[in-house]
Amino acid sequence: MSEQNSYEILGVATEASFDEIQSARSRLSQEYSSDRKQVEKIEAAYDAIIMDRLKLRQEGKIKVPEGIRFPEQKKPKPAPVAESSPSPSWLQDYLDTPSQWDIVIPAMVFGVGAALTLLAQSPNDPVLALVFTFGLVGNVYFITRKEKRFGRALLISLLAIVVGTTIGSLLANLSGVPLGNGGLSAAQVVNVVTLVIFWLVSSFLR
After folding, report:
1. What are phi and psi of 95, to 5 degrees?
2. Are 131 and 117 in contact (CB under 8 A)?
3. Could you give the angle at the alpha carbon of 121 between the alpha carbons of 107 and 183, nearest 5°?
4. Radius of gyration of the chain (CA)
5. Does this model's pTM top 0.70?
C-alpha cells in the first residue's frame, strides 16, 4: 500500500495533522463497522501513515506527539490498591521471615537444652539453672546476629523469659506430677516451656 493510497483511503491530505488522521480513522471505522474488509483496509492505511510519520520523526523531519509515539500513556492508570497489613506496623518491625537454618539451628540448640532438662534428677539440680542461663545467652545471640542490636535482643529475651515462666508455671500447676512419682517437676516444665519460647522468638523475631 503506497503512502498516497493510504491518505486517500482515509480521505485526508498528506499534510494533515495527527488529530485529523485519527479523527478520519475513527469516523470511517464507525461508518463501515459492518464491513470487516473495509475496516481492515482503513486500519492498514492508518498504520501505514503512522509508520511513515514515525520514520520521518526518527529522521528529525517532523515532531510526533507523545500520544502517538506512546499510545499506552492514554490508558488510565489503575487506582492503587491499599495493601492490608495483617499486623500493626510496629509489630512488622519485629517480625522476621526466617530461612530454614534460622529455624533449624536454634531448634537443635534449644532441643539439647530441653533434653538436659528432662534428664535432671531433682528440682534443685544445677543443670536446670545452667540450661536456663544457656538458653538466655543463646536466644540473645540468635536475635543479635540478625539486627546487631544487643539491647533490643536482651529485652526480647527477658520478655520471653516472663512469658515462658508464666506459661510453664500454669502448666505445672494444672497438670504437673511431682518428680518423685515419675513425673516432671515444676522447674523442669518451666525450663522446657521457656526453651520452646526461646526457639520461637529467636526464629521469628528480630
Report:
1. -75, 145
2. yes
3. 80
4. 37
5. no
